[in-house]
Amino acid sequence: MRPIIGITGRKDTSARLLNSPMYSVGQTYVNALHNAGGTPLILPPLFDEQDWPGVIARLDGLLLSGGEDIHPQNYRQEELTWMGGVDLERDHSELGLVRSALDRGLPILAICRGHQLLNIALGGTLFQDLAAQIPNALDHAYVPGRPMEQTVHTVTLDPDSHIANLLGGDTFAVNSVHHQGVDVPGQGLTVVGYAPDGVVEALELAGYPFCYSVQWHPEAMLKVNDTMLPLFAAFVNAAGQQATHAESG
Ligand code: MN
Q: Is 0.85 topped by the overall pTM?
């Protein structure tokens, strides 16, 4: 049986279909997991304490996807500078999901907004706007018209990190579609990758079976080549072991 992996979804406000709003997830996330041997399940951004434990108990892995900015009230800050779109309901839904997943030891892969969300779930903080708060920061933000998969800066990984091990190297060109970033790392999180300007691009949770996060979009890079494929293969494999334990336990 293939491991079942939840992917956090968003509110699609484009309302293309007869003025009827949708919940959605980018196909690249879904395809990356499906092609790597997992069964992806799309999770709507509206869960609360009545949903979290039951959902997490039925999953073998959790992928935190990209999306809106995370509201600074989630890490006890005022709004200091420019903020993009936010969704407080999604913030609440995902913070509860990831904390339930951590309680259960579920394999977690967190991407972009997910990377930032994981950090906040463990008590860390963000830069609300890299360009405003970091002198000489590279341009990490989305540029209209630029393909998602296009690489724009390098990331240097700790050569002893799990992520470097999985990817088989410690320096990679990556895409970049974010204007917020990790400031203070959350409890237990180790920074294992930086952009050339010092922005935190990868985190690992020490002593946890599989909990890795990246600020770039490996699922979009699969369109060009398989460099990032081992990340998804290892995640699905970890989720498969979780499923086996659940069956025998
Ligand atoms: Mn970046």
A: yes
Measuring CA to CA, how many Å separate 47 from each of 2, 105, 126, 170, 215?
25, 20, 23, 37, 24
State the catalytic residue, choosing from 71, 115, 140, 217.
Answer: 217
Q: Is 217 a catalytic residue?
A: yes
Question: What is the 25 CA–ligand 1 centroid distance (Å)?
Answer: 21
DSSP 8-state code for residue 62: E
List domains and CATH numbers for the chain: 4-248 (3.40.50.880)
Which token pair is 93? 């839904």
Taking only the tens place, the pLDDT of each residue in 35-66 is 999 999 999 999 999 999 999 999 999 999 99
212 bridge partner residues: 109, 204
Region label for 67, one of left (φ > 0), alpha (ψ between -120 and 50) or beta (otherwise)? left
Residue 141 CA to ligand 1 centre (angstroms)? 7
